[in-house]
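Before a colleague's protein record goes any further, I have to sign it off. I want your independent view on whether this chain really folds as the C-alpha cells say. The record follows directly below this note.
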Amino acid sequence: MKISDAVNLLDALAQESRLSVFRLLVEAGPNGLSAGGISEELGIPASTLSFHLKDLNHAGLLESERQGRSIIYRADYGTMNDLIQYLQHNCCQRDENNQCN
C-alpha cells in the first residue's frame, strides 16, 4: 500500500459518523446492512448517511449490492486488513528488543 492510499483511507474514517458507520458494518459481518438499517441503528438522517456512504465507498472501505429495492452495504475487510497491515508493517523495528506491545 502506498502512503497516499493509507492517507485516503484514514481521511475517510476521520469523521465521527463515517467511523461509526464503518464500525457498525464491521460488526454486521458479511450480511451487511441496508442504508435504512444503518440510519435506524445510528440515528443518522438518510440524506446525511448517503453522503457518508458515498465517501466510504469512494475510499474503497465499503462494498455494496442491490437486493430488490435496497442496497446492502458491507465493510471491505480486504481493504481494512491492508490498512491495518500497512500501519503495523514496521512495528517496533527500532525497539532493541524488537517487541510490539
